[in-house]
Amino acid sequence: MPLELPGSAGASPLAPQSSHDAHGGTLRVRRLGLESQSEPLVLMHKDCPICRSEGFQSRGRIELRHGERSVLATLYQVGDGFLALDEAGLSEIAWTRLEVAEDDEIVAVHPRALESLSAVRAKLYGRRLSQQQLSTIISDITHERYSDVELAAFVAAFAGQPFDLAETAALTDAMVSAGERLAWTAELVADKHSIGGLPGNRTTPLVVAIVAAAGLTIPKTSSRAITSPAGTADVMETMTSVDIDLGLMREVVDSTGGCLAWGGSVRLSPADDIIIRIERALDVDCEAQLVASVISKKVAAGSTHVLLDIPVGPTAKVRSAEAGEALAANLVAVGERFGLKVSPFISDGSQPIGRGLGPALEARDVLKVLRNDPDAPEDLRSKAVSLAGRLLSFVLGRDEAEMLEQAADLLRSGAALEKFMAICTAQGGFREPPVAPLQSIVTASHNGRIASIDNRLLARAAKLAGAPAAKSAGLVLHVSLGDQVLAGDPLFTLHGEAPGELEYALAFVSANSTIIGISNQ
Amino acid sequence: MPLELPGSAGASPLAPQSSHDAHGGTLRVRRLGLESQSEPLVLMHKDCPICRSEGFQSRGRIELRHGERSVLATLYQVGDGFLALDEAGLSEIAWTRLEVAEDDEIVAVHPRALESLSAVRAKLYGRRLSQQQLSTIISDITHERYSDVELAAFVAAFAGQPFDLAETAALTDAMVSAGERLAWTAELVADKHSIGGLPGNRTTPLVVAIVAAAGLTIPKTSSRAITSPAGTADVMETMTSVDIDLGLMREVVDSTGGCLAWGGSVRLSPADDIIIRIERALDVDCEAQLVASVISKKVAAGSTHVLLDIPVGPTAKVRSAEAGEALAANLVAVGERFGLKVSPFISDGSQPIGRGLGPALEARDVLKVLRNDPDAPEDLRSKAVSLAGRLLSFVLGRDEAEMLEQAADLLRSGAALEKFMAICTAQGGFREPPVAPLQSIVTASHNGRIASIDNRLLARAAKLAGAPAAKSAGLVLHVSLGDQVLAGDPLFTLHGEAPGELEYALAFVSANSTIIGISNQ
Known about the structure:
The structure is a homodimer.
Chain A (H helix, E strand, L loop, with lengths): L2 E3 L10 H6 L3 E10 L6 E5 L3 H6 L6 E6 L2 E10 L8 E5 H7 L6 E5 L6 H9 L6 H12 L5 H13 L4 H13 L12 E5 L9 H10 L4 E5 L9 H5 L9 H11 L1 E5 L8 H12 L4 H14 L4 E8 L8 H17 L3 E8 L7 E2 L1 H12 L7 H19 L3 H13 L2 H12 L11 E7 L3 E6 L1 H10 L9 E4 L6 E2 L4 E7 L2 H13 L4 E4 L2
Parallel strand pairs in A: 2-6, 3-5, 8-11, 9-10, 11-12
Antiparallel strand pairs in A: 2-7, 3-6, 4-5, 4-7, 13-16, 14-18, 15-17, 15-19, 16-18
């Protein structure tokens, strides 16, 4: 049947959807138990008649449908012995999203081209994107429509190309719109955030405990690690449940004033966790994405005041005071567009804060500070008090010295510990963080003074030891800048759950002598 | 056992390799028949003891070893019923590279970090790369050490960031060094290349046939399609074997003076085909990569003179004469560094050349020209004669008008056809290109004049119809710019092998009325 092609001004006589729906073939589903994160995968026999009739290619993208549900999946073809000719083996995300049961029938069709990928290409070539283009990208990512290869192009395009304020605000808006948005009865809602890049530095649980103990509302959601050995969500997960839904989060905040939840599980700005997984695989961060991620999470969480910790140091994420101030200005300006007050706090990022690096090891530092343990890391206690005092002063409009005093009192008196335990109990119960079965001490080769600590190499050693996936893995630092050491003195202890990982971290440490620099004086 | 960390000046007491080798576990291999192109994949049971003891995570990267062979693979974990606890299911590329047989034992260990990825990140942030950094990237890509996600970041970084001449030359050098390099007895070795972007335009088989018939040496290697419905290798594959090894390629050139081989199978600049697969998935091209790809293939092929066709038009790859000249200058300059003489040929890229789009349909146009068929597309014949005449004049230093006459004579006399058949026979035998089982005609909706043809939309329609994977799929154009048409006149015919693909191409055509613009006069 000939199809009439209209002139430039003509309307389309055929809707693509209707033609498109007319084809495809049915397959019986099998659950593979295959973990593929946000990219749905489907395995089919290479001689499957539908692959032949539809012209599906291995590693091509196909659309799977079950009733009203559909997913975009990447196809892999396999040989004999794994699947029958009419079977489709589904990865976990495909299985869940299609809401199928074993032996259900699904339909496989050619997907329509994802128009938002044109916008990703435009950004890759340095063009500005509109609110509409950014919304479509974020919506497609949120609905798991991007393959990992496409996500990698998105991350690379957004990391490598400049973003102006309007675009960053539009990206923020798109990320807020893609998820849930909370509202609280309190007029003032406090929040804090660290832009990261400094190992350890686990002040968030302490600040939340102190500020909630002071009677303020602070519904804190945190992310998992991007390129570091632990994020606050990873650390809290060694002590309580962080994977709580919105209903439970409301109850926790109503009863305690605070919470320490994982942002992904309450689906505030849900695109973020998908993007973060690829940023982690590529070890790439992007400033516009970072600003949009922070501000969108705070706006979606219903916060009114955010204190922003920006550690600056030669091996921190932010290398200079100027870069820190530029980032702060960007965050303040984007926050303003959403009625969110942002107070930047430029802090010392020359060495790790606290002693532990890794989920459980950082949790142990936090507990020591809350419990007023004489062995508690003083740098972590002091920084947490400074942040909490500043946040109380910022939200309440009160004198900062007075608020610092109050923050220190709440910690000393045990009120902060009590509040922290109340939050953990409300989130599902408190447990002590686990201890790693394998440990190995790294010592100084000669007498001298600790002249430098490379945050990035140290974080990498902790990650090679297994953090953050292995909860008890990481390392404990025994020295600070300026300390005098003798040959044989312990510098840090590597902790691991798997011998292979621990050995590999040790090999990395021995090959990178600049992790901790010891001057010969 | 404590490990001594040396001071900044100290040497490493432990070699990473030795420590690293001490761990890992053995698995029995199973061949999955899983097609995963250049990314080795391994499937393991999620409760596999080695995953547990080593801390391997689904979608993590692991190193597999078998004797002296090793591959970097992406791990997927699956549930019960597909693999035993001690089995590793391998994709085809992993199976081939490890040189294993069913039930062989392999070792799985944590891989060392791929240092060249730091250079990809540096490029992503706009920094210049050194020869050493580029060589390491290309070597790792050639040895299939990059996952697809990492390849996507590479493609995005190189597409989005500026490249200077020195860097482009260094990338070219790295690509030459990663593969084979040919030498010929002839002092003068001719070559031609089109930078593409114009559908059809299948002049290469004609130019090779004419120039070889004139007695010159022209050992032509071509790539497969990147973002177009067909590359020269795809077209030639419908008529003969293009997947020939270096030995056979030498024999073909020795006996006929020319050849029409796929560049990937002779491993000239082998990184190219891996990169092209990801560029195609993302629909992204990169100029530095394009220059390095073209020049490296010509240098590796041992060419001395290359004629470069650069089609320029509003919907071609190169949009303006200025852009075409800038690209030409870049190609000439990089070629010069390798002693390769490059002659640019800026041509009309305002509409497709020839009538067919897609491997077999373009092959049919080529055969009609060679056979002096009265129905042969005149634009294709005339452009091929111009290119061949110019190339003969460029290589031999002879008068261009005289050489144009000779080129036309060689075609008219049947000498070019005879040479083409001799090349096909030497490559494994000639066959007629296949005809698609499904065809659908698209007609004009009203009377008027053909005012515009959108190369990109037309190429996309041909690809949706199945080209280049479905060899006989694509489309045949029935009109040219300026033609008068009546309502109901055929504009083009879509060809397909699968009903789903053909229907989808039709839907795309009906939704995109600007593919062929008909003015109302």
